[in-house]
Amino acid sequence: MPVKAVYAVLNNLLYNVEVAAQEAKCAEFIVEKAEQDKNSAVIRVSSISQLS
Question: d(Cα 38, Cα 30) in Å, to the nearest integer?
Answer without folding.
Answer: 12
